Amino acid sequence: MGDRGDVWVKREDLTSTVYGGNKVRTLEAMFGRARAAGATRMWATGAYGSNHAVATVLHARAAGLDGGAILFPQPAGEPALANASALLAARPEVISIGSVIELPFVMARVRRRTGAYVMPPGGATPEGRSSRGQASPNSPPPRRFTTTKHTPRESRGWALPAKLGSRLTP
Fold first, then answer.
1. Which of 15, 102, 135, 169 is within CB 3.0–4.6 Å of 97 for a Cys-Cys bond?
2. What is the pLDDT of residue 70?
3. pTM score, two decimals?
4. CB within 8 A of 28, min separation 6: which ones?
5. pLDDT band at 29, cuts 50/70/90?
C-alpha cells in the first residue's frame, strides 16, 4: 500500500466458533440490555431461515439467557433450510406465525410475558450497524468505509456516521 495508510479487515466470520457473522456484534449489546432489564429469555424475530434467529438461539445460553424465536414464512432455499435446521436443533421455544404482517402484534404479546426480551427484526440496533463501538478507544477514526454486498443507497448510510465519528473522537 505504500504511503496510502493502513488497511483494516474485519473478519466477522471469525467472531465465534459457535456461529459467527455480523449478527454476533449486535447480540453483545442486546444480551447486555436484556440481562440488565431482568430478562430470562431473549426472543429473536425473523423469517424461518433467519441468521439472526440462529445466532440468538445459539449464543443466548452463554449470556445466561434462554433463547426463543418468533418466525414467519419465507421462500424455501438451501440456506434458509439449513438455518431453520440449525435453529430447531438447539430446541428453543418457537412461535410460528403465518405472515410477517402478524409480527408486531405477536411481539407485543410476547413482550408482556415475564422475563421476555424481544428484539427488533434482525436485531437492528445502532450498535449493530457500526463496528466502531467495538474498536479500541485508542483507534483512530476511519477515514473511509469500504462495504460489500450493499446497494449504493444502503452504503450512503455509512458516510454520515464516519464523518460525525471523526468529529467526536478526541
1. 102
2. 96
3. 0.68
4. 127, 134
5. confident
Assess whether 54 and 119 both reside in one domain: yes
112 lies in the same domain as 86? yes
Q: Are residue 149 and residue 81 in the same domain, yes or no? A: no
The model's confidence at residue 56, banded by pLDDT at 50, 70 and 90, is very high
Q: Which residue has the higher pLDDT, 69 or 164?
A: 69
Number of domains in the chain: 2
- In this predicted structure, what is the pLDDT of residue 156? 44
Distances (CA, A) of 158 to 12, 24, 120, 147: 18, 19, 21, 9
- Answer whether residue 11 is part of any domain: no
Residue 14 inside a domain? The answer is no
Contact residues for 16 (Cβ-Cβ < 8 A; gap 6+): 24, 59
CA nearest 75: which of 35, 48, 113, 46?
Answer: 48
Which residue range is the domain that position 26 belongs to?
22-127
